[in-house]
């Protein structure tokens, strides 16, 4: 089968996919709190962050309004995320290289071609740099990664 036939086959089955659900708002807020905890540098900073999240998630807050709009969009389409939002945000609006900004895997070495030892060394070095960058707050500084 050619890759072109594979694409046709994949595209043809899109209509058979289930509707993309909108995650429950309260569960999303709970997950937000859990996922942001490692980024707080102190207990006070964490409490401030939680207060911002709580204000955002109040029943009369911005988060509830945005969630309502998201549910409305979901009622109008089978996939509230794809095409207009994903296509525009991930690919069309950005003026940077698509290869780097939408597929970060391309900036990593091909781990399949590395020796087992070199592969482990790369992973350890990457995790070390990521951890240091997170703790020092300079995750996006280019010199951390070079």
Automatic annotation (TrEMBL):
This is Choline/carnitine acyltransferase domain-containing protein. Keywords: Acyltransferase, Transferase. Pathway: Lipid metabolism; fatty acid beta-oxidation. The keyword Acetylation does not apply. GO terms for molecular function: carnitine O-acetyltransferase activity. Gene3D superfamilies: Choline/Carnitine o-acyltransferase. GO terms for cellular component: peroxisome. The lineage of its organism: Eukaryota, Metazoa, Ecdysozoa, Arthropoda, Chelicerata. InterPro entries: Carn_acyl_trans, Carn_acyl_trans_N, Cho/carn_acyl_trans. Signal peptide: none annotated. GO terms for biological process: carnitine metabolic process, CoA-linked; fatty acid beta-oxidation.
